[in-house]
Structures are given as C-alpha cells and as structure tokens.
Amino acid sequence: MSSTDENPSSPEQPEHQPRHTAVSPRARAGQRGRIVTPRPPAPVPEPRKKPTQQSGPDLSALSERPRADRSGEQGARGSTEASADRASSSTATATAVKPNQGQGGSGDTSSQAGTSDGEDKPPTSTDTEVVRAGGTMAVATLLSRITGFFRNLLIGSTMGAGVASAYTSANTLPNLITEIVLGAILTSLVIPVLVRAEKEDADHGAAFIRRLLTVASALLVGVTVLAVLGAPWLVQLSLDANGKVNVTMATVFAYLLLPQILFYGLFALLMAVLNTKGIFGPGAWAPVINNVIVLVVLLAYWFLPGSLDPTQHVAITDPHILLLGAGTTLGVVVQALMLFPYLRMAGVDLRPLWGIDDRVKQFAGMGLAIVVYVAISQAGYFFTNRIASAADPGALFIYQQHWLLLQVPYGVIGVTLLTAIMPRLSRNAADGDNQGVVRDLTMATKITLMALIPVIVYFTVFGTTISSALFAWGRFDATSAETLGWTLSFGAFTLVPYSIVLLHLRVFYAREQAWTPTFIIIAITLTKVILSYLAPFLATRSDFVVVLLAAANGFGFITGAIVGAVLLHRSLGSLRGREVMRSTTWVLVASLAGALAGWLLDLVLRGDWLMQFPKLATLMRTGLDGIVLVAVAGLILAKSGLEEIAIFGRALARIPGLRRFVSVRQSAPEDMVGVPNAADAADTYNVTALSTASPGLPPMSAGFVRGPKLVPGAAVANGRYRLLADHGGTNAMRLWHAREQASGREVALTIIDTMRIPGIDDYRTARDTTDRIIDRTSALYEAKCAGLAQIRHIIRDSAGAIVVADWTPGSALAAVGQGRPDPYAAAFACAGLAEAAVTAHRLDTALGIDHRDRLRISSSGEAVLAFPGVMPHNSYGQDVHGVGVALSLLLENVNPVPTEIAELQDEALHARSADAETLADRLRRTGLGDAELHAADESTPNPEARPGFGEASRRPTGIAGIGALAIVVVLAAALIATYLVGKINRSDNGPLNSGSLGRAGSSITQGDGAKAITPTAAAYWAPENGRGTPDNPDMVPLVIDGNGTTEWRSDEYQAQLGSSATSVKSGMGIMMTLPEPATVTSLRIDGAKSGTHVEIRAAGSATPATVDETTELASADLEDGSTTIDIPKAARQSAAPGAEGSASTVPAHTQYVLVWITALPVPDAAEISEIGVTGVVDKPQSSTVKPTSARSMARAAAHAMA
C-alpha cells in the first residue's frame, strides 16, 4: 500500500492547506490529483502523551447479562462523544470527504480547501494531462537518443578514434563525479524527502527547496573547483600513463570539461524540483538542446582548418581544444539554465537558505549504501579504462560507442517496457505481495527479453556490417569501424543480464534492501575486473583487446543476474524459471531463423552489381538485414501462442510512431501496459540518463518505488498516521489500529486497494470503483450510531482509499466469541449493530458487515463496525445477514443457546426479517437483564517505528558466499567459452584464435611502458645496386606529417615485386628515424590498399646496404584503411642486427625502422597516408616467453584473482 496523495490538514495547522487534499467522489475527475510520487516512510515521531482512556467499566467480554437501564446509553454515546470530538478537530475534517456534495456544488471541499486562506491551491493533473506528460516524455527521450547517437557518430567521424578516446575519457569524468557526489544522494535521499516536503509542509516545501539548492550549490562549487585543480590526477586515474591514449590531450580537455560538474548537478536538482511541481517537459527536452549544441560544435571543428593528431602534445590555447572543450561545456550550461524560467513560472523561491532538513537524515543509511554502490562500479570502470588505453589509441572511444549503441534499443524499447510494468512490480514488492512480485517479475523478464533478444542476435550476427554502415565515415577509418563491429558482436549479449539485473534492483530497492544491490555490484565488478585483466593475454591483436573487454562486461552482469536470482529465490520462492526459459527459447529460435534469412539476403546483396556504391550498399544491407530478421522472427512468434506477445504489442504501441503499425489483441492485461503517470515517466527518464553516464554502470536505485509495506511502525497518509497493529481483513481491504501523529489520537484505518478487488484488472475500472467506494462511505459520515465507529476522514489514495474512524476500545468480536460470553449479553450487543444497518439503509447506502475482522465489542458491551468502508458489493440484505453471523460467532462456544435467542439468530442469518429495526428491538429486549458486563480491554500496542519495510536483509557473509560461488562459475564458463571460440576460429582476423590462446601467458600490450613515438624523419630506401628507380621519394615524409589526408603513393606496375626476372624490383622501403633508440612494439599503417604486403624490419643505421643487414620483426598483409601490426615479443627479444639472437637476450633497441613493401595491390599502386610507431623508449628489461597452453590461461586467471 502506498502513501497517499491527499493529506487533510492537521488541527495544529488550520491556516494552511496541504498540496493535495481528499476530494468528493462526485467531484469532477479533473479536480482529483492523480500524479502520485511515492516516498519512503516518514521519520519516527517524538513520543506523545497517550490519550485519555475511556472511564467506566469495560464490558467488552460480554461475560454477564446487561442491565435494563442501559437501553438508552446508545443515543447518548453517539451524540455526546461525536460532537465533542468533532469540535476538537473541525479544521481537520474540513478537507475530508463529506456527504451530499455534488458535482460543482458549493459543498465541494476540494475547491474550498484551496482558497480558505486566500492562497491558490497548487494545481492537480487530469487524466489528459497525465497522458500528455507521458507522451511528451517519450518523444523527448526518443529525440534525445537520436540526437545523442548522431553526436557520438560525429565525434568519431570528425576526430578519429585516437583523439576521440582522449576527448571521451575527459568528458566522462564530470558524469562520474556528479553521480558519486550528488546523483546517488539525489536519487536515494533528496527526491523522496523533497516530494514529502512539498506535500506535507505548510509552505509546500519552499524552505526545504531553498536549503537544498543552497547546500547543494555550495557542495557542487567546491567539488568542481577541486576537480579542476586535480584534473591531471583524475586523468591519470582513468588512463594508463604509459598507454596509447594521449594523456596530455585528455588532461587539457579535462580542464575545460570538468566545470560541467556544477551544471550537471544543478540540472539534476532543478529537474527534481520541477517534477514535484508537475512540470516534466523542460527536464526531458533540455538534453536534446544540449545534444544539438554539441552537434554544432563538432561541425565547426570539422570545418576549422587543421585537426588534432592523437600523438601530438597540445596546449589549452589550441583553437581545436578550446572549441571542443568549451563548446561541449556550453551545451551542459544551457541544459541547466533552460530550467530557470520554468522555476520562476512555478513560483519556486531560489533565495539562499542554509540548513539541512532533519528528514534527510532518516535515510542516510540507504544513501551510504548507494554511494558505496556507485564508487565500486566506477572503480571497475576505471580499471577497464586503463586496460583499454594501454591496448589501443581508439579502444576507449570504441568501448563507449558500443555501449551507447546497445543503449539505443534498450532505451527505446526496454525502458518503455519498464515504464509500463515497473510501477506495479514496485508496488507489489513494497506491499510484501511476494506472489505478485514473482508474477510481475516473470512477465517483465519475458517481455523484456522478447524485445531485446532479436536485437542481440542482430548485433551479434551483423555487428561488423552495422558498424561499417553507421560509423565508417570521415576520420573514423574502416579498421576502427571493424573493431567496433567485433566489439558490438561480442558485447551484445550483455543486454540480457543487464536488463535482468535492473529488474532485480527494482525489487530490492522497493523492499528497502539497499545494501543488497551493493553486494551485487561487487560481484559484477570483481568478475569484470578479472576477465578484463585477462583480455590482453588472449586477444589476437592489441586493437582487439577492447572486444574482449566488452565480453568481460557482459559476463560481469551474468554474475550479478545469478546472485540476484538466488537471493530473490530465497526470499520469494520459485521465480518461474521454466516459464521464462520456454518464452526465451521461442524468441531465440525465432530470432536465429530471422538472422539466417537476413544472412542469406546479405549474401545476395554482396554482389558486384551493388558493390559499385560501397557506402550505399552497406547501409542498404544493414537496414534490409534487420527488417528481414524482425519480420521472420515476428511471424514465428505470432504463431507461438505466448501470452506476452499481446502485452509486448501494447507496450510497443506506446512508442512514438509505432502505434499505427502495431495491432494488439484486447486480451492483453491492461494493468501491465497501461499509460504511466508523469511521475513514472520522469522516473524512467532519470534511470536511462544515469545508465548511459558511464558504460557498464546500472542505475543506482532503479527509480522510485511506491509507498511502504503495511507493517507495524510504518507511516501512511503522508506520514500522518503511524500503524500500530494489524487487525486482519481481506486482500483488498486491510484493517489497522493506528495513531494520528499530530494529536496522538488512536484511530481505526480501513485501507482499501481497489486493484486487489476480484474482477478489477485495469486502472480505469479501479478508479471508478474507488469513486463509488468513497461515495457510498461518505454517506455514513454524519451517522451517529452505537454500532458504527465515527468516521473522521476519507482520504483518496493512489491505490484506492483510506477510511479513518475513531478507535473502538474493547476486544475483537471473534476473540470474545472464543471466551463463552453470556448469550443474553451477546444478543444485546448485536442490537446496536442492527440499528446501524437500519441507519445506513435510510442514508441510501450499506453498513458493510462483510467480514468478522471489521467487528469489535466496545468497552460498553456493544458490537461495533469498528472499521467502516462500504465496498461495491455491500448491501442492506448482507448487513442483516451479517448481524446474524456476528451473533453466531459470539455464541459459537455457548451450549445450550436459549431458544428465543436461537430464533433471532436464525431469522437474521436467513434474512427472514424485512425490518432490521424490529430485529434490533427484539435483540435488545431479549438481551436485557440484571447482570452487568465486565471485561479487560485490549492493551494498545506500541510497536517499534519502522523506517523500512520488507523482510530483513540477509547477512553479508551469506551474500558473499553466493557471490563468490557465482563469480567462480561465471569465470569458468567464460574461460571455457573463450577456449572453444579460440580453437574453432583459425582466422587471424578475429579477436580470438588458437594462436592467441597459445600466447595466454603473455600480454599483447606488454605492460612495459609502450607509448606512441613520433619519427623525426622518413625517407625512401632501396638496396644498393637494386633494380628500378625510387618511387616518389619526395612524398615519403607525408607518412609522418600527422595529416591523414596526405599520402605517399608508389608507381604503378604490371608485374609483382620480387626476385624473379619479370619483376621490376625486389621491393620498396620507407626508412623511419626515431628520436632515440626504442623497442618497437607495434606499427599502425593507415590509408593502404588490400593486397599490399609489408615487412617491419629493424636497422642499425638509416642507410643499410642490403635487406640482409636488417632484422625482420613482423610481416603482414595490409587491409583497406588501417592495419595495426604488433611486433611479437619473441621478435623484439631477438638480437640486434648482426648479433646472435635468442629468447633470453636483451631486447634490441633500434632507432631505425624499415617498412619493406614486398607485394603490391597490382595493378594499383601502393598507398600509405600515415605510419604510427609505438614502442618503449626507456631502458629495456629482460623477459622470456612463458609456456603457452590452456594451462597457462588457468594460471593467468589465478594470478588475476590473486
């Protein structure tokens, strides 16, 4: 049961009305607030003085026959006590639901409440406004994804992978710092209290907002200044100082980009404030404007003369650096400043006010847990960053691009499903409805996987085609695009465990098990770190290390999904795994069939007739492959008969632009895919924004949850009532003894959840039912009967209604029946209940005697309907029958029952008396006697206040054991999968093969301080007395000028190079001079054509006489675009030219590197635009090649875990 969104003002504050008040059931729909932002339970109240106990003897046990002089007590009780209590709380009931208030009538308290003190009542949202807000959020989120995709595409095409990595690493730092400093606190602490303050405080949270903005702004300014001053340290934390990403360039970018921390934080705060005011549009559209500004900046960079080189040392005054850094920060500044006009229109007071609200301190434990959660996740992110930066200049950018590309379908489809399903799942988790949680979790899992598995198969099978079509533009060369494609293929499966982890987090946070997700992220991060450490030992090439890093991220989330599933299984029981597997198998088989059809089509589209237009052909292949896959999979699934097909269709219909194409069966459960309210939409927007801030970081709290589970000590109705004891009831109607916080008065609460009433399966019907319940119950508001507890308030709740009545001291009727009461006292007690039924009938409603738990025997010995609330099925006939049932329960252990009383009991049970008033009179006359009743009153419970809800979290040691076992299992599975893939693949073009597995004891990135080395000179070289003439020697220096648009080009030859008589020459060379001797670890050759074969050789001087005076280090067939040639460690450990070599000698330092071309792409000429050299300049260290086998992989894994 969630907290309410109507909170009648308390007697202590008559001059102010709360934001949302209870309203008449007959009031217009547009006057009822429907946007309900849930919140954690209210803080524990200070102890209050107990109310004065009722004087006189307690007669609730019915142990003696009543006296005749008690026949007139009932009227006095109803008038005297009620009028006295009513006078003491007249202000409190001014905003409660009242009878006889028609539409638009003067008695409409919802209107009066807002204007009684001259102030305007804050507006509430109608159904139309809610739908409009949800649609606006969806459109804005979709446009944010689209513009964000083009922004990332333009970053790569304008900068190139190397520069983009430096830029991206610096641009991610503000997001990471904002998340850990403010994001976690904002999500877990500030927003829930902000919502409560806005609803509960006399000033609608104005003072709280002022304190929040003052303290947060000061904190953000301080953190921003410290971050800018510590920019070099932050960059070195993220990047390997000896890696291949330009640390100097990243540091310069960081100085300009880190000020974003202040504006990201302000944006998050201001958006939260606007959301509580019911204003959602600006927060959703501001990121779109930010993306547009960055797009303009990137286009300006493209047209600015010159460009940044990934190896050059730059200063902050470089115009390219200034444009990119300041322009990107400008976008974030505008994003934050956009919200200020809307804050002014909403009347938000932004004047500084120092202080911290005491309510924030109540949730510090959850805040600490989430801060630790974020810190651990970001530690894993930094570890991955450092490995990627040590492997390849473009690895960081490629890794982030693959993650953001995965987030596009997840953000558009997956988050749409979360928006539709999560509110109900969260409510059931918070309410402690385990079966409901399992049901909704199963359905959410099935339809999420149904949406994502076809996408995963598409990315896995066609990853390189997709990346070439979308990213191989401008300076993002074909080789980088291919690496991105492999990364996408190897990392696509991550979406499955990632989405499952998010579903699990939602349940854990809804149950306030805040530390459980922290333990899960520890397991995720440990798995990811271990496998990431192994990536350089297993990759075939250094630029393929990032591919294995993506796979490591996915295996990490598999560990998290396993741990979450085990913990949920322990607390919830079976998670219906077979049902999920059946659905998943259907979707997987259908998707694979669609992929096969797409692959066959792709073979046809690769024909020469289309390859004349390569870019167009690749785009066409990418689109048609996906369309065919989805079409075939959809046709197969349409025949599957799966229940979730209809639900998935209804959810897809909510995506802008898809409604017209999606046909949905009406049998889909409406409540699973209903239109979310704007608060849910805002929640989902925040979740998706957080999930893309740092690759691999799941949202911290998985969004807000609904109100507290009903447990003793919890608070309801915006913290106005503290629950004391559960008195039973039904699934749809819970009965509670509670205490009013403001006055200390004990009350009875009838908490009605209309969604749990049998036959109600959609929100529209539930809303109408709530209206009817409030309408019928409000008719009893003025009733003064001994058999009915006096109703004080009827409060509309987000899930139904809460009826507040005076507490009836005494005993539960069923408990009295177990004590063998006097039969005449029992008959007399039921007389007042029958009279109350008559009174209700005269008021054109029913009393609602439909459950034994509702009835109590008062201290004066009378049966009372202690928990009022008229349900739709209640009737006058049922009330008469209920009087008979009540009498039967009291006489259950009485034997023999006097004849005259037994006749009355039978008459009431079978409703043979049409006049309940006559029945009441006969019961009273029959029960009268000379005896007096005495019984002990039930003691008022004093439960410990419960700031949380749900079962207690498990011991950390137990979770640690589960996590450790899951890590071991996933690591074993990952290594087995790696071994099998490597053994199956014999090609050198994949990330894994048998050769790379054989090198498992040696890291391809060497870890020896290799970094980019810029040659000081490049010249054409040919052997002395060799055949032929030099090929454009004056153009050779262009290969080291840092400009990818210039190139060296050989002459064209009809015959291939070689030593045969028909060959014009044996080869052609480019001799490069390094600044100082170094151990070369790799070369990158850009702008070459497929068919060119080169040898990388070390020379003792710039002018060796013959090829034999040089030492071959590596050879490779160049590919179109860019090719990275890694120097095997054994070759680098060979002796210098002219010396004897062995595996144990010191690596040869050389200052001269020869690129010896031995084959041309005949009949075309050889072309090279740039040559990049990577090596170790400092003093060499001796090392040996370790044994290579599957055993060495196991040893490497053990070393990583150690």
TL;DR?
This protein has 34 helices and 19 strands. The chain is α+β, with helices and mostly antiparallel strands and 1202 residues long.
Query: How many H/I helical runs?
Result: 34
Q: Which range does the strand content fall in?
A: 5-15%
- Mean pLDDT over the residues: 73
Determine the CATH superfamily of the domain at 29-89 and 710-927.
Answer: Transferase(Phosphotransferase) domain 1
CATH class of the domain at 29-89 and 710-927: Mainly Alpha
Main pleated-sheet profile: 8 strands, antiparallel
Care to count the β-strands?
19
Unreliable stretches (pLDDT < 50, length at least 5) are 1-54, 71-131, 663-708, 930-936, 945-953, 1134-1147, 1179-1197
- What's the end-to-end separation, in Å? 47 Å
How would you describe the shape? elongated
CATH architecture of the domain at 29-89 and 710-927: Orthogonal Bundle
GO molecular function: lipid-linked peptidoglycan transporter activity
Main location: membrane
Protein name: Murein biosynthesis integral membrane protein MurJ
Transmembrane segments: 153-170, 176-195, 215-235, 247-272, 284-304, 324-343, 363-383, 403-421, 449-473, 485-505, 517-538, 544-568, 580-599, 619-638, 959-981
